[in-house]
């Protein structure tokens, strides 16, 4: 089985390779192709990946290329973890927001929109290559903003099987399991536990948890609320959490505590992109060490905990037709009654060879749905803007986004966004 990783020069790649090495008895990978437009990064990251695999007896071959066709041709799975414009573009997204008194972040607000405009056309090109040279392959997207990219794939490449993944849900699940194990005094298998979460990528709410089919949410939520009340400066106001009756995705802080997040930007530099750039420099230096054959501890500073777990467990469930339940971004196809069936949602799905099937779940309450619907409208408009170079759609996307500029500032923000990213937006006439 051939697996292609687009953006294979990422500093995340060694963790992904580690995930495949941990599942050699489950996933019959014969070739892992790492594709990247940067040959120097491929040389370092790819060389390290090859040493990792060799140290484990070379159960599969690691190949590197700058040619997307060579990587994708005949692949069974294509993983996208690319970053158009690199970390410099992420830095630009952050400071774009800051310049205009808005949230500067890579997945939401004006920064997330800029990243989507750069990323969506490239991922759709990858889907076109898959259609031609890897028909029937599954595209697993990690490229942020993951929900927006998956929305674009669902609308403009519906014949290419695709799913969006994120590590937020699995991090929440593992934190909950750690708490239960501490209180119960015994281990709890991750495969025996399921998190009920619903929303959009980076805009979701966790509202249920079962262990071996038993509902333990009252205990989980009660312990969570108690812990918040015991803290001097909790990350969430207990009154908010009690009112919701759910655990919010971390990224909802940008919406619920916008002023707090804006104030934090006053402390830049360094922004998060600048922090990561320094971390990546150190990581690449470590990866270049010919004696290194396992991911260094410094990789944890990069973020992305459980990235390899969530990626390989999805591929394993799909390839081996396990019918497992995983949290995935896909069109819900009516699984949430009353919501538009074509919306891409982040939700529990059953995964097997037949595909990725959303499980019927109850809709979110009005206190959550209003925000979700506004952001989904922004997502749909942003997809149109990205695919067609449509300035009017981009304007409307900024108008509807809860973190967007006031109407009299939209033109200035849009001009800045397009000018800053002109090199990556060939379909646009600025």
Describe the structure.
The protein is an alpha/beta fold and 430 residues long. The chain has a domain at 2-164: NAD(P)-binding Rossmann-like Domain (Rossmann fold, 3-Layer(aba) Sandwich). The chain has helices spanning 13-22, 39-55, 68-72, 86-99, 109-133, 146-156, 168-184, 217-230, 238-244, 253-256, 258-265, 272-287, 307-319, 366-388, 391-400, 410-420, and strands spanning 2-6, 31-35, 61-65, 77-80, 138-141, 162-164, 193-200, 203-211, 214-215, 247-248, 324-331, 344-352, 355-358.
Beta fraction: 15-25%
Mean pLDDT across every amino acid position: 97
Count of runs of 4 or more consecutive helical residues: 16
Number of strands: 13
User: What is the string of SSEs from the N terminus onward?
Assistant: EHEHEHEHHEHEHEEEHHEHHHHEEEHHH
What strand line-up does the widest sheet have? Answer: 3-2-1-4-5-6
* Largest sheet properties: 6 strands, parallel
CATH superfamily of the domain at 2-164: NAD(P)-binding Rossmann-like Domain
Helix/strand structural class: alpha/beta
How is the CATH topology of the domain at 2-164 named? Rossmann fold
Helix content, binned percent: 40-55%
Integer-rounded radius of gyration: 21 Å
Identify low-pLDDT runs.
none
Spatial gap, N to C terminus: 44 Å
In the CATH hierarchy, what is the class of the domain at 2-164? Alpha Beta
CATH architecture label of the domain at 2-164: 3-Layer(aba) Sandwich
Q: What spatial form do the alpha-carbon principal axes imply?
A: globular
């Amino acid at each position: 089985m051939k697996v292609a990783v687009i953006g294979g020069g990422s500093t995340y790649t060694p963790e992904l390779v580690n995930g495949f090495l941990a599942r050699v008895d489950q996933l019959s990978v014969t070739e892992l192709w790492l594709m990247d437009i940067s040959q120097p990064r491929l040389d370092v990251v790819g060389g390290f990946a090859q040493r990792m695999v060799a140290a484990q007896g070379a159960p599969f071959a690691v190949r590197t290329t700058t040619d997307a066709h060579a990587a994708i041709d005949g692949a069974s799975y294509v993983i996208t973890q690319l970053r158009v414009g690199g970390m410099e573009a992420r830095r630009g997204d952050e400071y774009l927001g800051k310049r205009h008194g808005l949230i500067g972040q890579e997945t939401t607000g004006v920064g997330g929109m800029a990243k989507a405009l750069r990323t969506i056309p490239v991922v759709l090109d990858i889907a076109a290559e898959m259609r031609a040279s890897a028909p029937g392959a599954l595209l697993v997207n990690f490229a942020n903003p993951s929900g927006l990219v998956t929305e674009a794939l669902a609308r403009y490449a519906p014949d290419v099987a695709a799913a969006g993944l994120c590590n937020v849900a699995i991090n929440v699940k593992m934190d909950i399991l750690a708490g239960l194990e501490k209180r119960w005094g015994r281990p709890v298998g991750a495969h025996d536990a399921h998190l009920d979460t619903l929303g959009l990528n980076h805009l979701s709410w966790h509202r249920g948890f079962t262990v071996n089919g038993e509902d333990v949410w009252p205990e989980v939520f009660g312990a969570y609320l108690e812990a918040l009340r015991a803290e001097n400066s909790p990350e969430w106001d207990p009154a908010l959490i009690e009112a919701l009756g759910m655990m919010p995705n971390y990224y909802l802080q940008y919406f619920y505590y916008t002023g707090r997040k804006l104030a934090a930007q006053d402390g830049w530099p360094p922004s998060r992109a600048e922090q990561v750039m320094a971390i990546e420099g150190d990581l690449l230096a470590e990866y270049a060490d010919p004696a290194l054959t396992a991911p260094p501890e410094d990789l944890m500073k990069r973020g992305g905990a459980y990235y390899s777990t969530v990626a390989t467990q999805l591929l394993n469930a799909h390839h081996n037709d396990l019918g497992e339940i995983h949290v995935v971004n896909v069109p819900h196809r009516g699984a949430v009654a009353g919501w538009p069936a074509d919306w891409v949602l982040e939700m529990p799905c059953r995964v097997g060879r037949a595909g990725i099937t959303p499980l019927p779940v109850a809709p979110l309450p009005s206190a959550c749905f209003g925000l979700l619907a506004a952001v989904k409208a922004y997502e749909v408009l942003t997809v149109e803007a990205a695919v067609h170079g449509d300035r009017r759609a981009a304007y409307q996307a900024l108008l509807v986004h809860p973190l967007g500029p006031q109407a009299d500032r939209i033109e200035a923000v849009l001009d800045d966004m397009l000018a800053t990213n002109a090199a990556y937006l060939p379909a646009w006439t600025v």
